[in-house]
Input
Amino acid sequence: MKITVTKSDLTNAISIVSKAVSTKSTMTILECILIDARGQDIRLLGNDMELGIETVIPGTMEEKGMIAVDAAIFSAIVRKLPEEEVHLNVVGETIGIRCGKARFTIPGRDGRDFTRLPEIDKVDGINVSEYTLRDLINKTIFSISDNDSNKMMTGELLEIQDGFLKLVSLDGHRISIRRVELNGSYNNRRVVIPGKTMSDISKILGGDMEKQVSIFFTPKHVLFEFDSTTVVSRLIDGEYFRIEQMLSSDYETKITVNRKEILDCIDRATLLVKEGDKKPIILSLSEGNVEIKIRTTLGSMDEVVECTRTGRDMMIGFNPKFLVDALRAIDDEEVDIYFVNPKAPCFIRDAGENYNYVVLPVNFTTVD
Amino acid sequence: MKITVTKSDLTNAISIVSKAVSTKSTMTILECILIDARGQDIRLLGNDMELGIETVIPGTMEEKGMIAVDAAIFSAIVRKLPEEEVHLNVVGETIGIRCGKARFTIPGRDGRDFTRLPEIDKVDGINVSEYTLRDLINKTIFSISDNDSNKMMTGELLEIQDGFLKLVSLDGHRISIRRVELNGSYNNRRVVIPGKTMSDISKILGGDMEKQVSIFFTPKHVLFEFDSTTVVSRLIDGEYFRIEQMLSSDYETKITVNRKEILDCIDRATLLVKEGDKKPIILSLSEGNVEIKIRTTLGSMDEVVECTRTGRDMMIGFNPKFLVDALRAIDDEEVDIYFVNPKAPCFIRDAGENYNYVVLPVNFTTVD
Output
């Protein structure tokens, strides 16, 4: 293999496919990037068997071939190269890297040892803009669980229903739901995608409003296609939680409040909560204002935020971090928060149900 | 105590004095900041017994007093406050923090438990600009040793001799020397200042060419005074190394080379050196160019950099990191590097001896 590419194209492609490279594996081939210049294009591929990412880069091919190289060292070398053309030249199982005055030789691995992406028929997919997909992921991903003991909670539900695309994540204390209307009509579908895949995709996506992502499904895999990149991920097996039954539309008290004001206030309260501490903040809802209090071993805070309230007075306790995460994921200037009773979840949702953040309360009578 | 200060003044002062606050100590008072508003000024003070920093902040005093507060929580709260006036109000041993809508109460400690800075007579000191002092520190500090087994190597020598201020650091493999001519005449002096003090000072210093730092000495302490800040540090006890005998001015070979070109090249070579690995780079000095080679388990590199050479051909091996550190600390476009023989240190120094970086070679015949 003998190819020439620009440093910036190569750096960019490496950073994309590296998301699918294992950093510590017993199989060293999983720590490699495959450079494949056997066909018409130059392709880079990373594959940790859960997630595979392939991207095409422009360049010239003098001699076809392929090689797998250790991702960490290849990436470190390429990043330090001058901003010029990079010549890659495979001799046997080593790869020569030449750029400006720099000349490296590093060992490679036979490309045939590398696992390719599974073949997936690109039929019956959906289209959504890069911007929308990234936005939906970023505004829900934070409430997946990082505890592997319940695998399903470490994934995100992607649901297509009646022309809407919906993402859902939950961790046992809260649920984050975002949805957007699709252009065109699609079959209904429910799949659970690993949180790491979603998070990696949101980092790779350019976020262009005009550019489309196509998403295709098989019973075991999901495929995302955008720009010159293809991402294939395994799905999480099994039935996702039936969240509909947890979403009440009844409420006793509703407040409408300036989002930034209440966010800043609750965010400050988190300063008084030590890692691992379970101290709640207590919201006292009354006519015209919410009083927000917290008292921990580090100190106490007591603030008042103005609001419009309908319904009855209520005192209810929360883990402040969960409210902060939800309020940060909303763009609206004013938010509506619905309360049922001090033992039932509250809902932060908009009228059109484009978002619905559900947060379970904390029992505070026993902790203060 | 009842005082009002702006958030930005307070944040700035906290970040300065926090450099002298212990983060983990068995004495919790060392983890505190003292707020002292008993005199004419409002002062913040941090003191971990090795290093003490006091800074004055503008503000209004309604009621005199003082209190010590946990630096971590106080600093976290203040950073999150809105950009407005901060009202601090001590009641008993708690301190109320009020700013905009934010209202916190945190526990404090009796200010009398706090250790004040030692009294130091401000006589017989030296003056140097903030810029110069910071520059001298930044360009020598990297070669102190972080190994406590030789205490003297963890400090920097500050020497005043014949109207020059000189800083020296060394770690057994290299020596970094920088000097600058002082305005005015001063007594000769040699003190060894802990590396942490020097590094903290370089971070606090504004770096203004026009502003002066005054430095005063006692047999046990050094005091730096600049802006509204006073830094007092213990000195390291004992005699510093006699470095003069290590600085040969004889040489066999001298090369003059573009600094950035050789720096970039050696810097790339460090990519092939794993942490803890002792693989040297090998410089082959010949007429008109230096060939730079490295071969490790990760791969190999072989580059040529043009140079002007006087003297004889030589092959010599180095730890590439040490050359990189020295070359980064130099601003000149071209550098002169002097070699004696493959077992003796090389010197990167300018004609005026404003800088002299000494690097010991590595024996490479046994490693390749």
Notes: The interface with chain B takes residues 70, 73, 76-77, 80-82, 94, 101-107, 261, 264-265, 267-268, 271-272, 298-305 of chain A (CB under 8 Å). Chain A has six helices and 25 strands. The CA atoms of residues 240 and 319 of chain A lie 25 Å apart.
